[in-house]
Amino acid sequence: MKTSLILTLVGPDRPGLVSAVSACAGAHGANWMESRLTRLAGQFAGVVRLEVDAAAADALERGLSGLVAEGLKLAVVRADAGAAAQARLARLELVGHDRPGIVRDISAVLARHGLSIDALETACESASMSGEPLFRARAELAVPAGVGLAAVRNDLEALANELMVDLDFEEVSEPAG
């Protein structure tokens, strides 16, 4: 039986951090399943899902705790390796002038309709012509069975008009069967 360990890692960025995590995982027979790793304000930040035999999970956790010596803050959560993925997915993309509250307002609409954010990437950058701050977001969303996307789209479009941002929202997969 397999177990997933979800790691969150944060610490001062330097060469070799990913190597240290992957070496520990490999030493305990774990498979690196997926990750999101980035540098934010000079800090290394990451989320990693490792899959390991249930019998080796405790030893892997003890081994990972040694990463504290590498300067990383670490949290480990166990999850069922065979957890089923959502059958329906939607994608949201947004671009507009930056201002506080965009993520709060968009995520509130999604939560009100019962959609879950599977992945979210955001960035602020300078607009090409004006140089003003431009906010970009891209989200992959899990859509529960029975949720109609027309109502979600209407609420998102109304909010996009209020925020004066461009928003694209589409279903990318239908339920199987």
Automatic annotation (TrEMBL):
This is Amino acid-binding ACT domain-containing protein. Residues 91-170 form the ACT domain. Signal peptide: none annotated. One of its GO terms (biological process) is regulation of DNA-templated transcription. InterPro entries: ACT-like_dom_sf, ACT_dom, GcvR, UPF0237/GcvR_regulator. Pfam families: ACT, ACT_6. CDD domains: ACT_GcvR_2. Gene3D superfamilies: 3.30.70.260. PANTHER family: UPF0237 PROTEIN MJ1558 (PTHR34875:SF6).
